């Protein structure tokens, strides 16, 4: 699930907050996952 959300956030023009909201997770958590994936 994490990898799918991070990959979705890396698409051009995609809002991280929007992706987080669509998956029912906190945007700050998604930002943390993105930092960890680097």
From TrEMBL:
SUPFAM superfamilies (alphabetical): Homeodomain-like
Cross-referenced Pfam families: HTH_Tnp_1 (PF01527)
InterPro entries: Homeodomain-like_sf (IPR009057), Transposase_8 (IPR002514)
Highest taxon of the lineage: Bacteria
Example GO molecular function: transposase activity
GO biological process: DNA transposition
Name by which UniProt lists this protein: Transposase
Native source species: Alcaligenes xylosoxydans xylosoxydans
